[in-house]
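task queued by scheduler; priority normal; single chain, no ligands, no partner chains; default sampling; output format set to C-alpha cells
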Amino acid sequence: MAKYRPIYTYIWKDPDFQELDASGKLLFIYLCTNELTTDSGIYPITYRTVTNETGIGLPTVRQRLDNGSIKNIHYDEQHKYVFVVKFKRYNTGGKPDLVTRGIVKDFARSKCTYLWSLFVDEYPEYKEAILTVGEPLGNGYGENPTNPNPNPNPNPNPKPKPKRTVRATVPAWLNVDLWDEFKKYRIAIKAPMTNHAEKLLITELEKLRREGYDHVAVVNQTIKTGKWKGFFPLKDVGKKNITPEEMLRNAKKHV
C-alpha cells in the first residue's frame, strides 16, 4: 500500500470533474487517495467507511456509488468493492514486475467481483497474468528470506500445472435466471460461451445499461432473433434518456 497518491492538477479543468458538485469532487478524490487503494484500483470499501472518513452523508454516498453518476467509478454493491478505472494509468510508479505481482495479489483477494472484467477491458496487458495465477506469491513479493538461494526446480520433470480459469460472476443488477436463459440460448444456437466470452458479454451489457438501455429488453431482443450472439442497442426504440435515479430503480427491479 502506497503512502501517497498523485493528483494531477489538470483534474480541475477536466470537463467530467467540473460537472460534479462539491460532494462529488470530494468523493472522487477520496476514492483515489485513501489508504485502502491498491495497484489495480480495485479494493474493498463500504458506504460507512466513506461516510466516516469524508463526512459525506450515508444516503449521498450510497446514491453516488450505486447509480454510477461519477464517471470512471464502478461499485460492486454485492461484494462491496470499488474500481477506480483510470487509477492504474495515473499511478505508474514502481518496478513493472512488482506492480504486476501486486495486481495479481489484488485479484487473488477479490476475484469474486465482476469488476475484474472491467479491469481486463481497460488494461488488457494484465489479462494473462491474472487469468493464469499459479503458486501463491512469496511474502513481500520476494524470495524466501530464510533461503536466499533456493533451487528453483527441485523436480527435473515436473508436471505442468493446469491453468486456473476465472469464472464469470453475475453482478447484482443482473437477474440470475435471465442470464441462465441467455446461456441456454447460446447453447441452443450451437454457440456456447467460454468463461472469458461470458465476462466480456456481461461487460458489454453493463455498458448498454449505463447508456440508458433496459438490459432485460436488450437480452430478450437477442434471444428473440434466434441468431444473434451478442448484445446491441434496442431496435426501433432508441436510447432511453433516463435519470441515474431511474436507472437505479430499474436495476433493483431485476435483482
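post-processing summary
- The radius of gyration is 21 Å.
- Residues 134-152 have pLDDT under 50 and may be disordered.
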